[in-house]
Amino acid sequence: MHMDGARLLNASVATGVAPAEFASTADSVWLDFTKGLGAPIGAVLAGSTAFIAEARRYKHIFGGAMRQAGIAAAGCLHALDHHVERLADDHANAERLANGLVQIDGITVRTPRPETNMVFFSPRDTGWSNDAFLQAPETRGVRMGQARGEIRAVTHLDVSTSDIDIAIEAIASISDLPAPASPHAAKNPTSY
Q1: Total Cβ atoms within 10 A of residue 2
Q2: Residue among 31, 27, 24, 25 nearest 50 (CA)
Q3: pLDDT tens digits, residue range 155-186?
Q4: Which residue blocks in the chain are alpha helix, DSSP H?
Q5: CATH architecture classification, 87-175
Q6: Contact at 8 Å (CB) between 30 and 45?
Q7: What is the pTM of this model?
Q8: Which of 15, 41, 75, 186 is the most buried (most CB within 10 A)?
Q9: Strands 150-154 and 108-109, how do they pair?
């Protein structure tokens, strides 16, 4: 069994459970340094000696070898030394965002108490589609994405508490505006 550990350290910080304990039932685990830890590049794969030898072989077969990887490793080591504990700040910012979003009419927050650094919500009751809604706050530097029909906001190293307040204000101002007309309505006018 393999564990995708992209969010392993977020889970560890949120629960107080050691990463090794979470991963103890898996045969292998992947840890990404670029997501919550903020390294510019890098990840590690852990597993048995035989598994790592096979993975290394396939890495070379598929052209995944890197030369002079020390600079990437330095960024990863810095992230491990300085960015793990601060993941709690990301979790607090996600909670601040969720608390602000639940106050906005028409916004339905699926994660009013986020477990880590992700907030899922829908603007459906404002009349806005997800696509149109996501474009509007970008003029203020607020970017989010979609996942399974909802808007997903992710807090991370580059998002400050004041950025959260800007996002809440931007979302509140958008939800007060009339929803844009559906592009389908303009293309397919009703005929009599």
Answers
A1: 12
A2: 27
A3: 999 999 999 999 999 999 988 788 787 654 44
A4: 8-15, 19-23, 49-61, 70-82, 87-101, 130-135, 161-175, 183-187
A5: Alpha-Beta Complex (3.90)
A6: yes
A7: 0.86
A8: 75
A9: unpaired
